[in-house]
Design brief:
Blueprint: H1 10-17, H2 21-29, E1 37-38, E2 44-45, H3 48-62, H4 67-75, H5 89-98, H6 102-115, H7 118-135, H8 139-161, H9 178-183
Antiparallel strand pairs: 1-2
Length: 186
């Protein structure tokens, strides 16, 4: 990092990128995706290259790549994986809903919100699982879908209550929950 380069706090980077601070810390500690500089007091400082790396991470996540695989892809730009339509946890969450395990699903979703921005979860999990349940033609899967929507609502409200930030660069705030709140669908 150039000594003249403006350094940003974790909060500023969160505002710029739309990735909450908990997620940025997890990407650093758990996955080694980021290596911010530190102040004498231990506060993280990010530069322009770090912001570009976060944008690259988001790009891979938007393609459906699990966060645990992103570091390898960033380090080896020659690798281009196929587009993934859903996260690996999709099947286990579907199973939890089919067995009415809302507590297990909520726990899994809360953990996922620490590792993925809400917008990525919306595209690779919330909407796709809601759509899958919608396409099934039984009363049981309709109940499962309603349980899924309620579980997602609970997790989003909990994240909001805990102060998780999920604003996008364009100022659009939280994942647009209005469809779930007003019509019961994503």
């Amino acid at each position: 990092m150039d000594s003249n380069e403006k350094r940003l706090s974790i909060g500023e980077v969160s505002e710029i990128t739309g990735v909450n601070t908990v997620t940025l810390r997890a990407w650093q500690r758990r996955y080694g995706l980021l290596k911010p500089m530190r102040t004498e007091k231990g506060h993280r400082l990010y530069g322009e290259d770090d912001v570009k790396r976060i944008e690259a991470i988001l790009s891979w996540l938007d393609k459906g790549v699990p966060v645990s695989k992103v570091k390898e892809l960033l380090d080896n730009t020659a690798v281009i994986p196929p587009r993934v339509e859903k996260l690996p946890e999709w099947d286990s969450l579907k199973g939890m809903m089919l067995t009415f395990d809302a507590a297990g699903a909520e726990s899994t979703l809360l953990e996922l919100t620490k590792n993925y921005p809400i917008s990525v979860l919306e595209n690779t999990l919330f909407s796709t699982l809601s759509d899958w349940f919608s396409k099934q033609n039984s009363e049981v899967t309709n109940l499962c879908r309603q349980l899924w929507l309620a579980t997602v609502k609970n997790v989003l409200v909990r994240c909001l209550h805990l102060g998780s930030k999920a604003k996008g660069k364009n100022g659009v705030g939280w994942w647009d929950c209005t469809a779930i709140w007003t019509t019961g669908s994503t």
